[in-house]
Design goal:
The complex is a heterodimer of chains A (347) and B (261). Chain A is mainly alpha-helical and 347 residues long. Chain A has a single domain, classed as Orthogonal Bundle (ABC transporter involved in vitamin B12 uptake, BtuC). In chain A, 77% of the residues lie in helices and 0% in strands. Chain A contains 14 helices and no strands. In chain A, helix 3 runs parallel beside helix 8. The longest helix of chain A is centred in the first third of the chain and has 43 residues. Chain A is globular. The two termini of chain A are 43 Å apart. Chain B is α/β, with parallel strands linked by helices and 261 residues long. Chain B has two domains: 225 residues, P-loop containing nucleotide triphosphate hydrolases (Rossmann fold); 35 residues, no CATH class. In chain B, the strands form three sheets. In chain B, strands 6-7-8-3-9-10 form a six-stranded mixed sheet, with helices on both faces. In chain B, strand 7, helix 6 and strand 8 form a beta-alpha-beta unit. Chain B is globular and about 60 Å long. The mean pLDDT of chain B is 92. The chains are: A mainly alpha (347), B alpha/beta (261). The interface between A and B is medium-sized, with 29 and 37 residues. The complex binds adenosine-5'-diphosphate (ADP) and magnesium ion (MG). Magnesium ion (MG) binds next to helix 1 of chain B.
């Protein structure tokens, strides 16, 4: 009698675990499907809309279809950029949340965004002749700011609180620099505003080709950080006990995150909230195991930016909004909603 | 097994442990005792290389512990801190599986042997029926056992436990103590634990080490260490120490505070 009872509870419990695995896989597949659907829709909609059939023809390279030029030369590279940048930013945020052991960490904490901004804005306003080098300068600026934050935070090891404090200080300093330049050169601010608010408009295959290799490398390294991210969730002492060099791990994960954010910012400018909201949503959907959470974050991040970019160019057509503004306007309130809702994962 | 000598340990510039020697011999159970804030956790962190001493060395099997690769150390020694952090949705089995991490390269996945050892560790701590439950939904005693199971999955020769019983009721305290005792007897695991209950320390350990304000006070068999004088000097407590007929070991009964004596 009792033996039977024990058996039953045992089966129920492993069922629970199986159900969770099933759910995680379903979410993963669902995220892939969602990305595919939104990707196709993003090719269809714009100033001119096409049917899915026309899109397929264009992708097959069938000559004479009028969709071909627009889809292949404008919408496809834009979509690919949105996918890469969205995935990069989401992975970056998720990794930093493991580093800080805090679900509210954001790629901006490392100083990458403000560093990149200051460098890009300096070039655009002070040395406009060098504008072609904006992506390079932004990347270098982001890296330098990140190194600055981490050297300030280093004191016989690296501690999340010190990273946050150093990040806030450096961000304030560099943000001040950007504002100062904007005021001094307020007559030439137009292009700068577009960049500061993040926009994929006008980006072409050229940008895709630049970003693609770095993005692939960054994402692969990010996926290799899964185990370490999980162990860091057990706390410093437990991680050290298991033979993890915690400070090294924190720095490695942070650098990977900064790299992913840096290459993205350098290509399309500042796009906030993806790195914060997407890992949060993924956690609600699949739990805090990075083996599932990180890939789902990448997929959802890509999906969100594809949707946002499509909306940015269609909603107020023919006026095109910077996608960064759209993210802020919808991302902020949505994030507050998530926070209030709480759910399985409490902050 | 572990030999630490002339340890000087501090946080920032505040020195909290000074001139402390600590020897752990294979096969014994040691209880490290002393008042709150006397430096017990600090000493345990240093001998388990979680923290660096300002001076002095820790030898593990004759080698400086900080020169050994931290992963190699993790195969020989496991330390459970006073407080554990568990993500809200890790199951017992998932937690225990992390104990195998030191035995794998970063590119390897769980082997058949890993799986077997995980199940073995779960069996040793009698968590079979709770293996698929979330850690955060377990009682304090069960949670403590889950973490001990994770430590066991490392297959350590030495287990260091910082206050493994502090937040548990008496039944769960005894459960943990009996588990520790069995691991020592049946598997030959050397155990060092910080305990607050002196009667339990006497009952379950072979040797007591007493620390007060970061300094070594006394060590020896329970009979030699648990005395009225020690209790007065270290804890400021007047107490009666008698030999208990049932277990043949000293037990103490506090009578009152000893301030001003
Ligand atoms: N992280 C820390 N930073 C600064 N001081 C600390 C830290 N941890 C412990 N201490 C100090 O070190 C002393 C010893 O602490 P601890 O080893 O935790 O004592 P015990 O475990 O015996 O209660 C205490 O005075 C405590 O305030
Ligand atoms: Mg302590």
């Amino acid at each position: 009698m009792t033996a039977e009872k024990i058996n039953i509870t045992q089966i129920n419990e492993s069922d629970e675990v199986k159900k969770r695995l099933f759910k995680r896989l379903m979410v993963f597949m669902g995220a892939i499907a969602l990305l595919l659907i939104t990707a196709i829709l993003s090719l269809r909609f714009g100033s001119v809309s096409y049917s899915t059939g026309e899109i397929v023809d264009a992708l097959k390279g069938i000559e004479g279809s009028n969709a071909k030029t627009i889809v292949m030369n404008i919408r496809l590279p834009r979509m690919l950029l949105a996918i890469m940048v969205g995935a990069n930013l989401a992975i970056s945020g998720a990794l930093l949340q493991a580093v800080m052991r805090n679900p509210l960490a954001d790629p901006g904490l490392t100083g990458v965004s403000t560093g990149a901004s200051l460098a890009a804005v300096t070039i655009m306003l002070v040395f406009p002749a060098l504008t072609v080098y904006v992506p390079l300068a932004a990347f270098v600026g982001g890296c330098l700011a990140c190194l600055f934050v981490y050297s300030l935070a280093w004191k016989r090891g690296i501690d999340p609180i010190r990273i946050i404090l150093a990040g806030v200080a450096v961000n304030a300093l560099l943000g001040g620099g950007t504002s100062l330049l904007s005021v001094l050169y307020s007559d030439k601010i137009q292009g700068v505003l577009m960049w500061l608010n993040g926009s994929i408009a006008g980006k072409s295959w050229y940008h895709v080709r630049i970003l693609m290799p770095y993005s692939i490398i960054g994402i692969i390294i990010g996926l290799l950080c899964i185990n370490t991210s999980n162990v860091l969730q057990l706390g410093d002492d437990a991680a050290k006990n298991l033979g993890i060099k915690v400070s090294h791990a924190r720095i490695f994960l942070s650098l990977t995150a900064a790299f992913l954010a840096g290459i993205s910012v350098a290509t399309v400018g500042l796009i906030g909230f993806i790195g914060l909201i997407i890992p949060h949503i993924s956690r609600l959907l699949v739990g805090s195991d990075y083996k599932y959470m990180l890939p789902v974050s990448a997929l959802l991040g890509a999906t969100l930016l594809v949707v946002a970019d499509t909306a940015a160019r269609t909603v107020f057509s023919p006026v095109e909004l910077p996608v960064g503004i759209l993210m802020a306007v919808f991302g902020g309130p949505f994030f507050l909603y998530l926070l209030r809702r709480g759910g399985a994962y409490r902050v | 097994m572990i030999e630490a000598s002339r340890l000087k340990i501090g946080y920032d510039n505040k020195i909290v442990v000074e001139d402390f020697d600590f020897e752990i011999k294979a096969g014994e159970i040691i209880a490290l005792i002393g008042p709150n804030g006397s430096g017990k956790s600090t000493v345990l962190k240093v001998v388990s290389r979680l923290m660096k001493a300002m001076a002095g060395v820790v030898h593990l099997d004759g080698n400086d512990i900080h020169r050994l690769s931290t992963k190699e150390v993790a195969k020989k020694l496991s330390m459970l801190s006073q407080q554990q952090i568990t993500p809200p949705d890790f199951t017992v089995r998932e937690l225990v599986a992390y104990g195998r991490l030191p035995h794998r390269q970063w590119y390897e996945t769980k082997s058949q042997e890993d799986e077997e050892i995980i199940e073995w560790a779960i069996g040793q701590t009698r968590l079979e029926k709770l293996a698929d439950r979330y850690i955060n939904n377990l009682s304090g005693g069960e949670r403590q056992r889950a973490w001990i199971a994770m430590a066991l999955a490392q297959r350590p020769k030495i287990l260091l436990l910082d206050e493994p019983t502090t937040y548990l009721d008496i039944c769960h305290q005894l459960e943990v103590m009996e588990l520790v005792s069995r691991l020592n007897k049946e598997l030959g695991i050397t155990v060092v634990m910080v305990l607050h209950d002196l009667n339990q320390a006497v009952r379950y350990s072979h040797r007591l080490v007493v620390i007060k304000e970061g300094r070594f006070v006394a060590e020896g068999t329970p009979e030699a260490v648990l005395t009225k004088d020690m209790l007065r000097q270290v804890y400021n407590v007047e107490a009666e120490v008698t030999i208990d007929k049932n277990i043949g070991k000293p037990v103490f009964m506090p009578l009152g505070l000893a301030y001003g004596t």
